[in-house]
Amino acid sequence: MGPLSRCLSILVYHRVVPEPDPLVPDHVCAREFDWQLAALQRWFTVLPLREAAARLRGGTLPARSACVTFDDGYADNVTVALPILRRRGVPATFFLATSFIDGGRMWNDSVIETVRGAQGETLDARCAGLDALGISTIGLRRQAIERVLAALKYLPLEERQRRVEELAAQTSRTLPSDLMMTAEQARHLHASDMEIGAHTVTHPILAQLDPERAESEIRESKRRLEAITGNPVSLFAYPNGKPGRDYRREHVGMVKRLGFEAAVSTTPGVAHAASDPFQLPRFTPWDRTPGKFVLRLFHNTFRTRPEQV
Q1: Which has the least CB within 10 A, 7, 25, 207, 274?
Q2: Angstrom distance (rounded) from CA 251 to CA 212
Q3: pLDDT digit string (tens) for 249-299?
Q4: From CA 31, how far away is CA 23, in angstroms rounded?
């Protein structure tokens, strides 16, 4: 049996924007997302994640199976991605961090929007442990965003937020409050036969939290999403998702105890029958042409066994 037999490729997206964003070129735009789904449908059997995980365990997964997932809970998942998914007939799973529903904003978006709105040719980044950063061109602004995000990503949650707010205070621009979806939009996703999964409350690095707080983050996100949708939430995505660095074996145990059926990481690769259903790998094909996109999908199936904890 070849590497494509009974294996599961899980794609992870975050945002799908209406038009390309020169400041954040990694964001997939609507046109790209549409042809990506078309390519995925041509070469793979696309399944809902819950069904795919169950069929993987049961040995009934079709060859070349794939799933589409989204992390965090951006509003454009509903306004831009959902119509394309429905037109193509592609199921998807949306992992929502519940504290950002109804007007919240993730720390990384605060950084991006601060740099977008900053005036002048430099940005004072001492609050991030950096010197002044050039922002006189789009390219320099992109570099500034990357450097600030890297400097702040693994700071303790409260300290990171404090530093982000210090950075944001440098711009007079009001940062957007509509980037994340509302509870009504989450219900609309669910009513559209899309799966809703939990992604913690505040999107912390679980490995940095004490066990009680980590379990509360997982449990309360599940509870709130079940209250919003009126249905059980059985799928979970680890924030950031790197085994060992972002979550540990104890967190896998928490997810199991809290009644989830499967969970996903961000380790590249594909899942096989022997894979841990609570650490299913995911990846993002970043290529911007259909041919290279498909080649990346197939190349991913030849990766060595994905890392786990």
Answers
A1: 274
A2: 11
A3: 999 999 999 999 999 999 999 999 999 999 999 998 788 899 999 999 998
A4: 18
